[in-house]
Amino acid sequence: MTTHRNHYVPKWYQKRFFKKPDVGLFSLELTIPEGGSPQSVQSRAHKRHSPKVCFYGEDLYTTILFGVPNDDIERFLFGDIDNTGAQAVLTVAENDERRIYELFPLFFDYMNAQKVRTPKGLDWVKAQYRGLDQ
Length: 134
What we know:
Largest sheet: 2 strands, antiparallel
Strand order of the largest sheet: 1-6
Structural class: alpha+beta
Radius of gyration: 17 Å
Shape: globular
Helix content: 40-55%
Distance between the termini: 20 Å
Number of helices: 4
């Protein structure tokens, strides 16, 4: 089964910003009216959301191979980076000196992946490789 909701900020990372007993993030949703300029941004009321509905996009990393949606990038590339990144971020945050030496390169792998997996980063990739259609 193909996943269509791709989180560019993993849910585990978002949860690190919760202040107990809170279980959500406040987000401010901004909209630009159709045909409007960035100066005409309108904001709606901010409210608390769970990580499930924050920092995601539909089919951000889905490719179409022979007409079939494929989410291997999400599952195998970002899945592995997120799993090892979770350990590395926790190690650095807790200043676990014994494990930092081992996991420090994985911390930077995770941070580098974050740079290109956001909508802004994906737009940069598209600008660099203009022939890509997905």
